[in-house]
C-alpha cells in the first residue's frame, strides 16, 4: 500500500509539464463551456425570433441588380427555413417580387444573402420583409 | 497521454518508478507531445463524420442548452473511465485518468475549432452561443477518439510486454456504454434516423432488434476479430449471452434513448415512433458497444 502511494506520488511528480498545461486548458474549457451554456439556458430571457434586415450593397450585374442584405435575429430563438421576400414598388404598383430563404438563423446571429432584381432598386422603393419560419 | 511510461524505468525489487525525469525534462515532454499528436489524429479520425455533417452544426445551437450540459457532464466520467481502463494496471491512477480526460477535451476542442473554422462552419463574427454549441457537440466523439487513439496506436508501439487493465464485469458494461455512446452520438444528429424509423414496419423493427442482439454476440465471441473474448468455461452459452449480449443490448438501447432525448429527437413524437427511433439508433449503438469490448 505504501509502495503504491509512493508510486502514485512519484508518477505525479514525473507528469510532463505539457500534460499539466493541456489538462489545465481542458479543465478551463470544460468548466467555461458548462458555465456559459447554463447561463444561456437560464440567465438570458427567451425571446422569439425578431429579424432585422439591412441592405448592405447593390451591385449591377450583366442582367440584374444584386441586392445584398444582412438578416440579424434580435431574438434568442433559432428560426429554421426562414422565408424572405423583396418587392419593388413604383408608387403603389408592385413591379416585381423575388423570394429567398435562410435555412437556419440562430438567435442573436446574422446571415447574409442576396436578391437578383430585374428593376434598378435605386430608382424605386424596395420592401424587404420576412415571411414564415419553422421551429427547430 | 502516457508517453511518459515509455521513458520510465521500473525497479522490480520495490516496484517504484525511477523518477529520473523532471516535469520540464525535454525528452519526456517531447515524447508526450508525440502522444498528443496521436490523440489529435484520433480525435480527427473519430469525429470526421460529424464534423462534416450539417445537422450536427445546426444541433449545436438549436439543441436545448441544459440537455447539452447534461451530455457533457455524462461524457466526463466516461472519458475518465476510458483513460482508466485503457491504461496500465500497474501504473495508471485515477488522477492520471482525470488529467488524460481533460487533455482529450483540450485536444478535441482545438481540433474541432481549427476544422470548423477551415470549413467556414464557424466564423469570427459568429455569436458565442453559436460556436460554443457547435464545438461542444464535437467533443463527444472526438474526445473518445483521442483516448482510443492512445490505447490502440500507442500502447503496442510503446510497451508490448505490459498488460492493460483487467476490466472485470463492471468494466465490460462500462466500455459497452462508452462504445454505444460514441457511435450513437455520431449517427443520432442525422435526419436519416427519423426517416428510417418512419419507413420501417413494426416487424422490421423487431427483426432489427434481434439482428442487433445477434451481432453483439457474434462480434465479441464468434467473428474472430482481434480482441475476441473467450466464453468462460464455467458459464453456459445461454448465461454468457444473457450476461453480456442481452444486458449489453439493453444498455445500448438506454444510451440510444438518452442520446435521442438530449438531441430532442423525441420532441413531438408518439411513444410508438419514439420506440422505433430507439431501436433504429440502437443498431449502431449495439455495434459500438460490442466493438468497444474488442478494442479496449
Structural features:
heterodimer; A: 136 residues; 2 helices; B: 296 residues; mainly alpha; flat; disordered N terminus
Tell me which oligomeric state these chains represent: heterodimer
Task: Describe the sheet with the most strands of chain A.
Answer: 3 strands, antiparallel
How much strand of chain B? under 5%
Structural class of chain A: alpha+beta
- In total, the number of strands of chain A is 6
Rounded to an integer, what's the Rg of chain A over CA atoms?
26 Å
Give a verbal description of the structure.
The complex is a heterodimer of chains A (136) and B (296). Chain A has 136 residues and is of the alpha+beta class. The mean pLDDT of chain A is 86. The radius of gyration of chain A is 26 Å and the shape is elongated. Chain A starts with a helix and ends in a 6-residue tail after the last strand. In chain A, the strands form two sheets. Chain A has a three-stranded antiparallel beta sheet, with no helix packed on it. Chain A has a three-stranded antiparallel beta sheet with strand order 4-3-6, with no helix packed on it. In chain A, β1 (51-60) and β2 (65-73) form a beta hairpin. Helix content of chain A is 29%, strand content 43%. Chain B folds into two domains: 19-166, no CATH class; 167-296, no CATH class. Chain B is built from eleven helices and two strands, in the order αββαααααααααα. Chain B has helices spanning 4-7, 26-51, 54-62, 65-85, 94-118, 128-158, 168-187, 192-199, 202-221, 237-262, 271-295, and strands at residues 9-11, 16-18. Chain B has a two-stranded antiparallel ribbon. Mean pLDDT of chain B is 82; it is low at 3-19 and 155-163. Classes of the chains: A alpha+beta (136), B mainly alpha (296). At the A-B interface, α1 and α2 of A face α2, α3, α4, α5 and α6 of B.
Amino acid at each position: 500500500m505504501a509502495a503504491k502511494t509512493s508510486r502514485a506520488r512519484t508518477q505525479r511528480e514525473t507528469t510532463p509539464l505539457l500534460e499539466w498545461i493541456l489538462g489545465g486548458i481542458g479543465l478551463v474549457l470544460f468548466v467555461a463551456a458548462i458555465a456559459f451554456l447554463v447561463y444561456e439556458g437560464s440567465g438570458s430571457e427567451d425571446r422569439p425570433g425578431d429579424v432585422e434586415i439591412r441592405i448592405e450593397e447593390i451591385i449591377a450585374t450583366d442582367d440584374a441588380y444584386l441586392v445584398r442584405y444582412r438578416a440579424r435575429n434580435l431574438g434568442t430563438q433559432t428560426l429554421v427555413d426562414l422565408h424572405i421576400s423583396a418587392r419593388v414598388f413604383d408608387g403603389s404598383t408592385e413591379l416585381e417580387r423575388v423570394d429567398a430563404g435562410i435555412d437556419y438563423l440562430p438567435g442573436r446571429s446574422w446571415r447574409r444573402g442576396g436578391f437578383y432584381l430585374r428593376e434598378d432598386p435605386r430608382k424605386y422603393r424596395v420592401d424587404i420583409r420576412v415571411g414564415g419560419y419553422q421551429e427547430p | 497521454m502516457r508517453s511518459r511510461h515509455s521513458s520510465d524505468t521500473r525497479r522490480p525489487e520495490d516496484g517504484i518508478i525511477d523518477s529520473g525525469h523532471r516535469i520540464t525534462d525535454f525528452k519526456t515532454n517531447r515524447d508526450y507531445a508525440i502522444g498528443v499528436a496521436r490523440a489529435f489524429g484520433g480525435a480527427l479520425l473519430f469525429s470526421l463524420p460529424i464534423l462534416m455533417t450539417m445537422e450536427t452544426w445546426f444541433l449545436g445551437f438549436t439543441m436545448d442548452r441544459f440537455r447539452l450540459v447534461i451530455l457533457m457532464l455524462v461524457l466526463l466520467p466516461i472519458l475518465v473511465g476510458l483513460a482508466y481502463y485503457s491504461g496500465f494496471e500497474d501504473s495508471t491512477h485515477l488522477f492520471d485518468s482525470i488529467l488524460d480526460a481533460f487533455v482529450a477535451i483540450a485536444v478535441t476542442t482545438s481540433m474541432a475549432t481549427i476544422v470548423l473554422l477551415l470549413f467556414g462552419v464557424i466564423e469570427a463574427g459568429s455569436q458565442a452561443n453559436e460556436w460554443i454549441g457547435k464545438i461542444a457537440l464535437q467533443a463527444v466523439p472526438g474526445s473518445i477518439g483521442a483516448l482510443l487513439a492512445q490505447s490502440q496506436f500507442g500502447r503496442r508501439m510503446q510497451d508490448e510486454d505490459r498488460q492493460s487493465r483487467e476490466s472485470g464485469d463492471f468494466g465490460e458494461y462500462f466500455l459497452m456504454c462508452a462504445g454505444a455512446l460514441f457511435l450513437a452520438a455520431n449517427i443520432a444528429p442525422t435526419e436519416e434516423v427519423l426517416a428510417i424509423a418512419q419507413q420501417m414496419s413494426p416487424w422490421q423493427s423487431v427483426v432489427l432488434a434481434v439482428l442487433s442482439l445477434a451481432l453483439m454476440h457474434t462480434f465479441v465471441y464468434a467473428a474472430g476479430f482481434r480482441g475476441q473474448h473467450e466464453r468462460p468455461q464455467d458459464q453456459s452459452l445461454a448465461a454468457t449471452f444473457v450476461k453480456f449480449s442481452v444486458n449489453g443490448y439493453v444498455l445500448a438501447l438506454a444510451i440510444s434513448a438518452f442520446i435521442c432525448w438530449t438531441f430532442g429527437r423525441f420532441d413531438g413524437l408518439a411513444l410508438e415512433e419514439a420506440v422505433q427511433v430507439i431501436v433504429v439508433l440502437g443498431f449502431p449503438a449495439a455495434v459500438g458497444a460490442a466493438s468497444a469490448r474488442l478494442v479496449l
